[in-house]
Amino acid sequence: MPITVTHRDGAVVAALSGEIDHHGARAMMNELGELIAARLPRHLALDLSGVTFMDSSGIAVLLRALREMDRLGGSLRVTNIPAQARRVLDAAGVGRLITLD
Q1: Residue 48 CB: number of other CB atoms within 10 A?
Q2: Per-residue model confidence (pLDDT) at position 1
Q3: Cα distance between residue 6 and residue 59, in whole Å
Q4: Do residues 63 and 96 make contact, with C-beta atoms less than 8 angstroms apart?
Q5: What are the helix (H) ranges across 9-55?
Q6: How deeply is 4 buried, as exposed, middle or buried, from its count of CB atoms within 10 A (0-12, 13-18, 19+)?
Q7: Which residue would you say has higher pLDDT here, 2 or 46?
Q8: Which of 31, 78, 89, 100 is the most buried (most CB within 10 A)?
Q9: What is the phi/psi pair of residue 31, to 5°?
Q10: Contact 30, 62 (CB under 8 A)
Q11: Which residue in 50, 76, 51, 80 sits closest to 63, CA to CA?
């Protein structure tokens, strides 16, 4: 489950791809944690346009990234959310905690 990193509008953009489920969530959490620790971004955007499936494990990935960014005093935004992932995030009320675009 590769993560591609770019920069846009002063933010680090991490493009996630593939399925975010219980099989890959731990590896994705670790990779995002390493990215945040190495770059110490003030603003992090997670681009989900390449995500083909997300279950509740994906929510855990996003909440872990939010916790890391809060620790840095930074912000987190989730962008380009596919319809299936949007339904999962909306059902859990994640939009009350994280900016979803």
Answers
A1: 24
A2: 62
A3: 22
A4: no
A5: 25-39
A6: exposed
A7: 46
A8: 78
A9: -65, -45
A10: no
A11: 76
The pLDDT of residue 82 is above 70: yes
For the chain, the first-to-last Cα distance in angstroms comes to: 22
Token duo for residue 91: 């059902």
pLDDT at 38: 94
Choose among 8, 75, 6, 78: nearest CA to 35: 6
As given in the structure block, the two tokens for residue 100 are: 């979803």
CATH architecture of the domain with range 3-100:
2-Layer Sandwich (3.30)
18 Cβ partners below 8 Å, 6+ apart? 1, 2, 24, 50, 51, 52
- As a whole number, mean pLDDT of residues 66-92 equals 97
- Quote the mean pLDDT of the chain: 94
